[in-house]
Amino acid sequence: MIPVCKPSIGTEELKYVTDCVKSSWIGSMGTYIEEFENEFAKFCGTKYAVSTTSGTTALHLALASLGIGPGDEVILPTFTMAATLYAVIYTGAKPVLIDSEYSTLNIDTGLIESKINQRTKALLPVHIYGHPCDMDILAGIARKYRLYLVEDAAEAHGAEYKNKKAGSFGDIGCFSFYANKIITTGEGGMIVTNNEEIACKARILKNLGFSPEKRFYHVGLGYNYRMTNIEAAIGLAQLQKADRFISTRINNANKYNSILKDIDGIELPTEKAEVKNVYWMYGIRLSKDLPLTKDEMMQKLAQAGIETRSFFIPMHLQPAFKEWVGDEQYPVAEDGAQRGFYLPSSSDLTSEEIEYVCDSIYKIVKGSL
Ligand SMILES: *Cc1c(COP(=O)(O)O)cnc(C)c1O
């Protein structure tokens, strides 16, 4: 089976983890944490980075550090992974969903302003599948209405908009290091910011609200969102190889594009002129005039030993969030979700595997597989 996405872990990770175990620094103190944070801040082009236990907790910590809570509203896309929405719900603020634009399935920036009111506190865009959102427009809206801008960059390590890194535009950028993300620590997350005050506040909040000066004294409600030294050790090794992971993913996407563009009925992912898409996932959509559905295609690919994944199911269609979101229509997100799925996208994917996947798709479309 060609997996849809598997981490690329090697001897470097083993070396650093062994170092943690041998030195017995396996908790949330130890030198790898600080080194990973410093190097990750550098990687993003931001002044500060604060590690957390997951992308979900990074998002929650970001919103909490900005003081977002009950009575506030946060604007986010319906087409995302549930963690983005959960983070808003955890704060007690009201999530306000927005439909996608067609080409990237990122938040449709043209629909945002009509949803802004006195209670709106923040914009929370998501760089879907590694393609950055239109950051100039989002930053402009945030400035005009005095809103915080928090980026969910969980899928976009190293992606760029006008030569600037995803995660470095907003007040805070949030990353995930879950096992299938471009850089992984197994489970883990990070927030990045240029604001010292926010970074300090986040450090206190993620550590149960402990006062940095006085021991066992709590200055405010906090959480235990501390990353372990072992996770940071894996993360540091990953980060040192990140440029290679990213360039392979881009090459793989180009290779997929060059073959699949000749097959009728397959819509390829886009890359806008001003961005660097890092293709966390290489996603395609089947056009409506193909005689087979996405599920049939995915099933046939599975029979050929190729694992794929359906696009996200938009948040407004989730039973879990019924009481949190309204009953508006989000037709673009729904259409994308219905027709889209992603192909094997690991950093370690070989040319031969890509050719095999494309050849299988060709045969399925032609009806010979
Ligand atoms: C992966 C992901 C997260 C958070 O993931 P964790 O599993 O909590 O690390 C958040 N948002 C998006 C868009 C993601 O893809």
Automatic annotation (TrEMBL):
Listed InterPro entries: DegT/StrS_aminotransferase, PyrdxlP-dep_Trfase, PyrdxlP-dep_Trfase_major, PyrdxlP-dep_Trfase_small
Keyword set, alphabetical order: Aminotransferase, Pyridoxal phosphate, Transferase
Modified sites of kind N6-(pyridoxal phosphate)lysine: 181
Gene Ontology MF, one: pyridoxal phosphate binding
Pfam families linked to this entry: DegT_DnrJ_EryC1 (PF01041)
Keyword presence, Manganese: no
Catalytic residues identified in the record: 181
EC assignment: 2.6.1.102
CDD domains: AHBA_syn
GO biological process entries: polysaccharide biosynthetic process
Enzyme class: transferase
Cofactor requirements of the protein: pyridoxal 5'-phosphate
Entry keyword Transferase: yes
Family that this chain belongs to: Belongs to the DegT/DnrJ/EryC1 family.
UniProt protein name: GDP-perosamine synthase
Primary gene name: per
